[in-house]
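Risk register update: the risk of archive-format incompatibility is retired. Evidence:
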Amino acid sequence: MDGELIKSISEGDTAWVIVAAALVMLMTPGLALFYGGMVRTKNVLGMLMQNFFSLGLVTVLWVAVGYSLAFGGTNDFIGNFDFAWLHDVAAPAGGKFVGMAPPGFGALTIPPMVFMAYQMMFAVITPALITGAIADRMRFTAWVWLLGLWAILVYSPVAHWVFSPEGWLFKRGALDFAGGTVVHVNAGIAALAAILVLGRRRGWPKHAMPPHSLPLTLIGTGILWFGWFGFNAGSALGANGLAAQAFVNTTVAAATAMLGWLIFEKLRTGHATTLGAASGAVAGLVAITPCAGFVGGMAPVAIGFLAGAICYFAVSLKFRFGYDDSLDVVGVHLVGGLLGSLLLGLFADAAVNEAGKDGVFFGGGWSLLGEQAIAVAATIVFSFVVTYLICVVLKAVLPGGIRVSEEDEETGLDLTQHEERAYATDLV
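Archived output:
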C-alpha cells in the first residue's frame, strides 16, 4: 500500500468539500438540461438519459476501480488497485485512522472518503460532456459501452497524469487547478473522435435543427454556473482564502466571457441571442477552470473575455471542416479548455497560490507555458486515439453498430431508444 495517513482533519474543510461535491453532482443534471434544450423535441429524453446514466454507471466504476487507477500507486502513467472497491479509503473497524490518502496527499485536511467522493463527481460529468457532440444519432447501448470504457481507459489515466502528484505531467510542473486538461480538453477531443466515427446527422448542415427549448437551456446554464463554484472553489480542498479566490475568478470569467461572446455575435449578426449568452458563460467557466486557483487581479477578466470571443468563432469551424459537432462541445470545451490551460502559462501568479508558479506576465519566463503546451498536447493525442479506437471497435462488434438506423433517427431517440415522449403534444 502506497497511501499516506492523514495527520489532522478540519471539520470546516470537510464540510465545505462535501458541499462542493454536491454542487458538482448537480452539474450533471444541469448539463442534461443545457443540452436537452438545444436538441429537437423528439430527442430531448435521449439526451437527458445519456447524461443521467453517467451518474449511475460512472459512480459504480469509480468506486470499483476508477479512483484507484487515477490516484493509487506511484507509477508515472497509471495508478494501481490499492484502493479498488474503496479498500482502506474509509476508517477500519478499530477507527484508529480515517483512511489512507493517495500518495502525495498526506497534507489533506479532509477524510480520504470525502476526497474520493469529490473526485467521483468530476469523473461523472467529464464523459457526459461528450453527449452534446453525438446528439440525435448514437444508440443508447453503444453509449453505455462507450461511457464505461472511456471512464476507465481514458479519464482515469489522464486524471492520474495531471491530478496525482505521482503523475508524469504533474511531476513535470504542469498546472491544472480544476480540470482544464483532465475534464474539458479531454472530453472535447474525445467528442471530436467520436463524431468522426459516428458521422453526421441526417440532413446536416442543409436542414436547420433549431433548439426546441431555449428556456430549458438557460435553466441548465444557471445550474452549471452555480455548480461550477463547487468545481473550482472546491478544488482548494479547504474552506480558505484560495477557495474564495477561485470562487471570484469563476464568476468574473463567466460574466466577461458572456459579454465577449455577445459583443462579437452582435457585431457579426446584428443580434445578441440567449443561446449566445448561455454558450458564452459556459465558455468562460471552461477557460477559467485550470486557472481558478492560480490567478488573481484582473486576469479572470482577460481570460473570460478571450474565451468568449475565441469560442464564438471556434464553433463555426464545424461548418468549414465538415464535422457535425451537434451542440458545440468541440468549439466550447476543447477550445475553451485549451485556451485556459495555455493562458495559465501567461497569467499564473505564485503570490495567489504558493503551490503554483509565475507565468510569463509575472516574471516566470516561458517554462510554465511550455509545460502547459506539453500537457495539452499529450491529453489531445492520447484521448483522441483511444476514443477513436473504442468507437471503431464498438462499431464493428456491437449488433447494429453504434448509430441508430435512418428510420429511427427520423423518428427520434426518445421513442426508438426509450419508448417515451418528453411532451404529450410531441409532434416533431
